[in-house]
Amino acid sequence: RRIFTNGDGRYNAARLLLACVSVSLFAALIIVPTLFSSSDSNNNRSLRLLSVMKSRNEMLRSVTKPSIPNVVTIDHNAAPAKSFDAKPEIVSKPFKRKPKLSPPSDSAMIIFYNLFIPTDPAEAKVAIDVLTEQLGQVATSLKEITNKKPTLQSAILYYNLIGNESTFSPEEINALCRKLDPNLECKLSGFYEHASEAVTLEDIHDFCRQEDTDKSTRVTYIHSKGSYHQTLINMNWRREMTNSVLHPDCQNPPDDRCDVCGSSFYTRFSTIYPGNMWTAKCSYVSKLLSPREGGEYDEKKAESVAKFLKYRLWGQLHSTLLEDRIDYFGLGRYRLEHWIGSHSSIRPCELHRQNVTFEL
Q1: Does 136 lie in the same domain as 210?
Q2: Quick check: helix, strand or coil at residue 43?
Q3: Do 76 and 174 share a domain, yes or no?
Q4: Cα distance between residue 258 and residue 243, in whole Å
Q5: In this structure, is residue 11 part of a structural domain?
Q6: What is the rounded CA–CA span in Å between residue 232 and residue 239?
Q7: H/E element, 249
Q8: CA dist 251 to 5, 137, 142, Å?
Q9: Integer distance in angstroms from the first to the last C-alpha of the chain?
């Protein structure tokens, strides 16, 4: 049975066709641009970041012509790769082959210290004040631990000195350590005119991967934060981070509940301890990629950021970052701050005062 007569049918079909065309035009001109306008800024940022990363890598390749093999394993006997970092002040050169570390068996703490002393006399004085304060914190913690565990009576601190080696000699530094506590020994691992934290993180990684290192051993990483940029916030932040990682509960977490301990653990933009001081178990550290500059960790870090930007550009992935910042992505010097939390098996814990503030 026909609903319309022939004339009415043609008329209504024409009206229906016109309505469909109108809706299609409205969707094409109004709705679709509105839906995609919110992602335009993300797409533009993704394109800009990808362009910057590509041009930066091409520039560095043209200058250094590095050759990094596409392998998953790390060859520790191979010659060190050339640096991918364009800023000479944070390029660790050269990476020196160091002897195997053998801390005393009664060590209550094994500490690795990245120490920067500027060449300017006034700035060097500030750095030495920071050094003295942090060594005092080490000595205080050592006394607290040895009082609880009489079998552990000593502490060893390995440090890399960067910048100025004439203002405070290794002999003077070790004398200061012995003065603060006769059982505190400080050993110079290496001197670098220009270096980043990578040299000291590499020492930790190598130590934890030594065949004779007990994988239940915990190692502490600290650095002289604020020795170059002295501000009230940096000073208080450094004190809080140092106190946390040296605390007996960070050195020996109750019930062995975590692999890495620090003053605060973030998951907002990465699994990270802001400020990059921590105490970690060697069984966990040995799982990480080598932090050597220009090595596999750097390569995979850049690859992961590039993949994220491409997926966001294609609309397949949305960002939870507040904004596009290199510290959020873990690029440049911030890549080393992301290193300790870069394995999926991490069991983190944090330790800090209840009402901590960096302003007071």
Answers
A1: yes
A2: helix
A3: no
A4: 18
A5: no
A6: 11
A7: helix 248-251
A8: 90, 14, 10
A9: 87
What predicted TM-score, i.e. pTM, was given to this entire model?
0.74
Most trustworthy range by pLDDT among 106-120, 223-237, 324-338 = 106-120
Give the pLDDT band (50/70/90) at residue 328.
Answer: confident
| Total count of domains within the chain | 2
Tell me how far apart the alpha carbons of residues 109 and 130 are, in angstroms, rounded to a whole number.
Answer: 20
249: left (phi over 0), alpha (psi -120 to 50) or beta: alpha
CA-nearest of 195, 193, 194, 240 to 360 is 240
Task: Give the integer Cα–Cα distance in Å for 155 and 159.
Answer: 13
Residue 100 confidence (pLDDT): 85
How far apart, in whole angstroms, are the C-alpha atoms of residue 336 and residue 359?
Answer: 26
- Is 55 in the same domain as 193? no
Q: Structural domain of residue 137, as residue ranges?
A: 98-288+346-350
Say if CB 201 and CB 220 are below 8 A apart.
Answer: no
Q: Would you say residue 355 lies in a domain?
A: no
Question: In terms of C-beta density within 10 A (0-12 exposed, 13-18 middle, 19 or more buried), how is residue 127 classed?
Answer: buried
Q: Which residues pair with 191 in a beta bridge?
A: 161
At 30-63, the pLDDT tens digits run 444 444 444 455 556 665 666 655 555 544 333 3
**Residue corresponding to tokens 């020996």:** 252
The CATH number given to whatever domain includes residue 280 is 3.90.550
Residue 62, CB-side half-sphere exposure with 13 Å CA sphere: 6
Closest CA to 272 of 200, 350, 203: 350
DSSP 146-180: HHH-TT--EEEEEEEEEE-SSSS-HHHHHHHHHHH
- Cα distances from 244 to residues 138, 298, 353, 357, in angstroms, run 11, 28, 9, 14
User: Do residues 75 and 284 lie in contact, with contact meaning Cβ atoms separated by under 8 Å?
Assistant: no
Residues 66 and 171 in one domain: no
Q: How many CA atoms within 13 Å lie on the side-chain side of 53?
A: 23
pLDDT of residue 10: 65
Q: Give residue 170's identity as a one-letter amino acid code.
A: P
- How many angstroms separate the CA atoms of 277 and 299, rounded? 23
Length of the chain: 360
